Amino acid sequence: MDFLNIVVLYVLGFTICLLLYLFADSNFLKRGPIGKLRKLSWKLLRHIVPWNWIEASLTQAHILLNSRNQVFRVLFGTMMVLGHIEFILDIVPMLYRFVPDENHVVIPIFLVFLNFYFYHKCCMEDPGIINAKTVDRYKNVYPYDGRMFKSGVTCVTCHLEKPARSKHCSICDRCVHRFDHHCIWTNNDVGGLNHGSFVLFLLSHIAIMVNGVRMASRSLYLYTQHYKLMQTSVMAPDGSMQSITLTVLFQHLFMTFPRIVFMLVSFALLIPMVGTFALYHVFLISANQTTNERYKRVSDTDYNPVESVILNNRTKSRKITKTRPDEKTRRTAITYDRGLLINLYEVFFTKTFLSNNRKHK
Fold first, then answer.
1. Contacts of 350 (CB under 8 A, 6+ apart)
2. Which residues is 181 bridged to in the sheet?
């Protein structure tokens, strides 16, 4: 099999696994052919692998993903260090060899320091922790909508009145103002005080990968042009000489510069993934929403019926009726959208926004 075909199959398999993970809760994947295949595979796995091994693996995975730990911080730092070591050892020397008059390090250095700055803020910055000292600061920032956030509700864990748009994080064991989600990569919550830093971290990380793709592809292109690889001939299986194809060229470049090609392909796969995630959060802050609120809203407006049991007095039988959420309540719900500019100001200048909000109160 040609090397390029192997890469295509790898990318296709990676994409399929990603889609299966993202839409794992859909009815099609749960009850359709894929869901049946997944159940069959799970049964076969239980017959092949001892159950105590499976249970131990699931327990460790649960601890890793649902408890505060430094594993993903270390993993992220390791990947960043290895990527920049590859950049220094392979890409920079090649660029300076073929284009010695240009500066090839200023932009990467600027981007990596910018990225680590926002990553540090995401890891160490207060996301908006609500405790006995800060609850008064946050409880009047947003009005209660009476549906997702109701007045007078007390957190059963913190034993504090829950401000509107707050949520208790079970992993960090604390309530967070304007809670969005818990991020395993930062080992911290994304909330009202650091949502802007989180978005800037994502955007700066995308910039690093885009610049990496640009510099890696340029170095390979300069190498190909310098040695006139596209004008060379290769021996075909029948012994005849033929012009080089893109598949053969790609395979030659991979065998000559495996680390550069691997990084190039990896970044090309990661950019759409991280970019989609970043665009989703840009949409959230521009609409003044959070991931937690969108999840609650989708659950509330879902078409899954709400079952109510009616007891027939004559036959003593139970009849199940199916109703949908109140459309009038849904239409009249409070929206926190204040317009694009104010929404952005609220996220990226949070402390000023909270200070002004307290003065107006």
1. 192, 193, 195, 196
2. 190
